[in-house]
Structure prediction request, 277 residues.
Amino acid sequence: MPELPEVETIVRELNQSVTGKSIEGFQVINESSVLISADTKLSELEGQRIMSVSRRGKFICINLKGMKVVVHLRMTGRLTWEVERDRRRYVRAVIIFSDRTKLYFSDVRKFGKIWITGKNDYDKFTGISKLGVEPFDNGFSAENLADLLKGRKGGLKAFLLKQDIIAGIGNIYADEICFDCGLHPDLRIEKLSGKKVADLHKSIVKCLSLGIQNCGASVSDFVGINGNLGKQQNYLFVYGRKDDGCYLCKTPISKCVSAGRGTHYCSKCQKLSISMT
Ligand SMILES: [Zn+2]
Prediction:
């Protein structure tokens, strides 16, 4: 599933290529992929100019005057200018622009969604209102993370995956963040000391930034809007590296299930228990 860095990559690409374009039509091919809010009609999109494209968590927001087109790619969704031949039957919706270009939403497994919505209730309609803090917001500091951890119990990876606490982290980056700060994915968060919380905060920002710098990780379905692959898959320390040697200590990378997800970690570099100092 595309995570914050992959979605940010798409948002930046879209911002460069669709901002200023006018929408001529919106074609719905699979009805369950497109949700239209009660205060809007699909036809209201016609003639609308795209003001900007922004990201909230893993949501892509195409901002129009008084309306928004919000996209969540979920497992296998893609937004691209072209569609490969073997993927054409998975096109679920098409945005047609007045300059005759078309942006295709294709989705093999149909978990992805597009919401056509007015500007006021869009966050409730899409679920964006339930999202937690953005890792790149100024407000997200080590102190802020300590506040978010306060009173909570459970495993570290499960905490990192909760979109209503911190928005945007998924399976790949959660594993990379745990490795980067030397903590086992199942480490109990109530055991984290102030110093470790500060390390964890640094690792969250660092791992997500690296992913953005490398234009996302193309480990399964992710491609940019021109079909371009990301590069971050070449720089992962643990994710997808089961039995390969840890880059730091050469111990074979282990795989377990944590927070219900396949999880990669180094049994030597990542501690399950830490001293309280
Ligand atoms: Zn190691």
